[in-house]
Design a protein that fits this description.
By secondary structure, this protein is mostly beta strands. The protein contains one helix and nine strands. It has a four-stranded antiparallel sheet, with no helix packed on it. A three-stranded antiparallel sheet has the order 1-2-3, with no helix packed on it. The longest helix has 4 residues, at 87-90.
Length: 108
């Protein structure tokens, strides 16, 4: 489901805001917010899990990882777990003190 609109005074030929709800085949639900008018601009990603959280900030390139079990945050900077030019490296598990993540690309 998506709701879009043009609500700012920006001179664009397209919508300037979108709220999108996603439902995946495995039952997980996600949401996406996009806009062209937020100032200062911000580009972030947050993934929530039962036992933790991953937050990524494009401005710094850093990822923060929280583990409920360890009750701690760890910062990965610069973001070394996503290398868009080397998909084979994304198939390797990456572990650090608080959490363990396995990344598998959607496209190979």
């Amino acid at each position: 489901m998506a709701k879009t609109g043009k609500i700012s005074g920006l001179e664009l030929d397209v919508e300037d805001v979108a709220e999108i709800t996603l439902r995946f085949e495995n039952g997980l639900i996600g949401s996406v917010h996009l806009d062209y008018f937020q100032r200062p601009p911000e580009h972030t990603l947050q993934i929530s899990f039962e036992r933790g959280l991953v937050r990524w900030d494009n401005a710094t390139g850093a990822a923060e990882v929280y583990s409920v079990d360890e009750d701690c945050w760890e910062t990965l900077s610069p973001l070394r777990i996503l290398n868009a030019t080397n998909y084979s490296s994304m198939r390797q598990p990456i572990s650090w003190r608080c959490c363990w993540v396995r990344l598998v690309p959607a496209v190979t």
